[in-house]
Amino acid sequence: MKKKRTLLLVAAFAGLSLLLSACGGRGFVPTSWAGLTLSQSGENLYVANNLGIYVLDPVTGRQQQIYPAEPIRGASYYAAPVLTEDGQLLAAAYNNRLYSFDLATRALLWEFSEARSRFIASPLVLDDVIYAPNADGTLYALNMAGEKLAEFETGEGLWATPTTDGSAIYLTSMDGRVYSLAARTLRENWSVDTGAALVSTPLLDPETGLLYVGNFAGDLLGLDLRSGRIAWQAETEGWIWGPPALADGVLYLGDLNGNLYAFEAGGSTQPLWQTPLDGQIAGAPLVTEDSLYIGTGAGKFYALDLDGVIRYTDTVDEVLLLGTPLLVGDLILVGKVNGDEVLIAYDRNLNDRWVFVPEN
């Protein structure tokens, strides 16, 4: 039966708390899975996790250095760092601050401190403007010196990085709406109510002209870019946390009931296939030329073929393997939640190559 809009916001926050809270470090601190960014050269992997942003050799997993050069009291980081063309590292923090560090010296360049809640998602940088979503429900537009240019308020918290087609900024909110905003000014072009909370980055498909989003009612929606009209709609069995992945006209998507799906983008709303996995899926699957890779909240990491048939499985006891895996050369990296190890590297047959334990 089609789920109606009965998911109250309090239930949404309860679900978020289960995934994003854990014991670690010095007493009880909010946590998440590590945010991963590979440098353009491929030589450095930046890992945001708790009290620092670690720079690793992506081949060996060896720690090279840590940002910032001097620790900032009260700051913790989980969103993937953003590296800018002018040599900044942008770090969203749970202490209501957005920081900029000098890539070369690791020194603090500036901080934006006007937000009223956590920066959970990474900012988006477009044409020398930084678009920073905050859990206070506001999208802040900043210049590259961290000075506010504009802001746009929604009805609830912003947990996801916006996306863009170069002229508009597309934003999802816990208020259940998707917004299209003019770049730089943040003037609203349109907004649409999807019926339930949204916590993932929307996916733009230039082939179909649709913007794909999933919500906490289990709806995967394709929105018309010009009007926001819901032009395509498919259903899943559980809440949708992570964004879909798109490859060769196929959408791959997981839900919090542990199902992995494939849909024809903009085509039939019935899944091409559906494969049940063990544990909640909170990220987008990594898609390669012949395989899918995804981790779950039950500590399972899966390799499947493109028809949804499981090829390999690895189990990591008492650990959550969440977020979207990252392909670095022949290695597949996935964040770990709970325990001292925060990152694991697999080969394509799911043999462990290395694990990363931060050295503070």
Structural descriptors:
Lipocalin; 1 helix; mainly beta; disordered N terminus; 4-stranded antiparallel β-sheet; 360 residues
Explain this structure to me?
With 360 residues, the protein is mainly β. It has a domain at 277-360: Lipocalin (Beta Barrel). 3% of the residues lie in helices and 45% in strands. It has one helix at residues 9-20; strands at residues 21-23, 28-30, 35-38, 45-49, 52-56, 63-67, 82-83, 88-92, 98-102, 108-112, 124-126, 129-133, 138-142, 148-153, 163-164, 168-172, 177-182, 188-193, 203-205, 210-214, 219-224, 230-235, 245-247, 250-254, 259-264, 273-276, 286-287, 291-295, 300-305, 310-315, 320-328, 331-337, 343-346, 352-356. A four-stranded antiparallel β-sheet has the order 3-4-5-6, with no helix packed on it. Strands 7-8-9-10 form a four-stranded antiparallel β-sheet, with no helix packed on it. Strands 11-12-13-14 form a four-stranded antiparallel β-sheet, with no helix packed on it. A hairpin with a 5-residue loop joins β13 and β14 (148-153). The longest helix is centred in the N-terminal third of the chain and has 12 residues, at 9-20. It is globular, with a radius of gyration of 19 Å. The termini are far apart.
